[in-house]
Write a structure and sequence with these properties.
Helices cover 35% and strands 22% of the residues. It is of the alpha+beta class. It has two domains: 2-77; 95-234, Glutaredoxin (3-Layer(aba) Sandwich), CATH 3.40.30. The strands form two sheets. Strands 1-2-3-4-5 form a five-stranded antiparallel beta sheet.
């Protein structure tokens, strides 16, 4: 399955800009496919890219790109990547909804990215360990997306946000662990924690709108989802 998906990504990625957007009537016809109806998958937009339909779908309240073969016989759910650019083949997200809503920003570079992270996610930790080396190349806007199976992720998110100043917040994110003495002894001023809870809840809602399903999820300035290791390659970080 994964090999097929990667092959599709390599052949389909001429450019999303070349994809033809379907009319409302055509979208409605696709939406009537029995499997989509039974699965309660709402098709919001559709594009024809070579021999494949790219569907922007709402699945249980979450936005997701899924793929349908041109004969409408096979549905592919999962991520498809361009093997050259490491960008995900998807309908670009409207990242204007993220502007000014980040927890904090890190970096002084001109290239802007948007990161959805979980303080207890080991893969997030791996990526974030490289951020000091990437700092001069990019500006990364941080959003918290604590996953339900990480029991301390929400509390760690609030703790990170409680630090004053973006540099202090970044350092707290790098060091965040439930076993840390500072975290165990954390305290908040009256009414302060509610502000952090509201922000993280908002980040979770924004992530759901964009189709975030795991962490770390990174979007570039065009709203394309990218693999974090591609940033290391782009800026020649070993």
């Amino acid at each position: 399955m994964n090999k097929k998906v990667l092959l599709l990504g390599a052949t389909m990625m001429a450019s999303l800009l070349s994809a033809k957007e379907l009319s409302f009537k055509e979208v409605q016809e696709i939406a009537k496919i029995d499997m989509l109806v039974k699965s309660q998958i709402i098709v919001e937009k559709a594009y024809l890219e070579n021999d494949m339909y790219m569907l922007k779908a709402n699945i249980q309240g979450q936005s997701q790109t899924i793929f349908l073969t041109k004969d409408k016989k096979n549905l592919i759910a999962g991520k498809v990547y361009n093997t050259k650019s490491s960008t995900e083949l998807s309908i670009p997200n409207d990242i204007s909804i993220l502007k000014g809503k980040e927890g904090f920003s890190y970096g002084t570079g001109s290239d802007e990215y948007y990161l959805f992270t979980d303080p207890e996610c080991p893969y997030c930790k791996k990526f974030e360990a490289y951020l000091p080396q990437l700092k001069k190349h990019l500006k990364i806007n941080v959003f918290f997306f604590p996953l339900s199976f990480h029991k301390d992720a929400k509390e760690l998110s609030y703790f990170i946000l409680s630090h004053k100043g973006k540099d202090a917040q970044a350092q707290a994110m790098f060091k965040a662990e439930a076993s840390n003495k500072d975290f165990k002894n954390r305290s908040y001023k009256s009414g302060e924690k509610g502000k952090y809870i509201e922000m993280v809840d908002n980040h979770l809602q924004l992530g759901a709108q964009l189709g975030v399903r795991g962490t770390p999820t990174i979007y570039n300035s065009k709203g394309e989802s990218i693999v974090w290791t591609s940033l290391l390659e782009k800026y020649d970080i070993k």
